[in-house]
UniProtKB/TrEMBL annotation:
Pfam families: TRCF. PANTHER family: FANCONI ANEMIA GROUP M FANCM FAMILY MEMBER, TRANSCRIPTION-REPAIR-COUPLING FACTOR. GO terms for molecular function: ATP binding; helicase activity; hydrolase activity. This is Transcription-repair-coupling factor C-terminal domain-containing protein. The keyword Nucleotide-binding applies. InterPro entries: TRCF-like_C_D7, TRCF_C. One of its GO terms (biological process) is DNA repair. Residues 18-116 form the Transcription-repair-coupling factor C-terminal domain. Keywords: ATP-binding, Helicase, Hydrolase, Nucleotide-binding.
Amino acid sequence: MVDQFRLKPIPYKDVQLDINISPHLSSEYISYLENPVELLNEAAQAAEQDIWNLMQFTEDLRRQYGKEPRDMELLLKKLYVRRMAADLGISRIYPSGKMIIMKTNMSRKVFRLMEETMASETHRNSLSFTGKEIKSLVGISKKTYIWERRE
């Protein structure tokens, strides 16, 4: 009985995030970091392990270097989205017209439970579940999307 409401996570490496965002760290920030390549590898490894390791990495990064610049923030957010997608059983996230499509192994019952717990009626009403896909209408204010670049 409980299994019908259980999420079935997938491996982090199996998640495709097909959103055209390529943050570019400034040369100033790169030179500020002690070892930027190693740091980015550590971020990816933390995300691959679990959300808690990624959160710890982010806290350590901020403790050592202060609040990260916008492009580093976007890079971290991409890691968080991919990690959370893996935990929710979402294998691919991609745009299609005015929709964001998320391929998932989630059952309709789990989707309904998740939808019912969402605090934002706007976000809740923008979602639909069809078979093995969750669709989200992109007509929500741009500032609500984590991947939106500030002008």
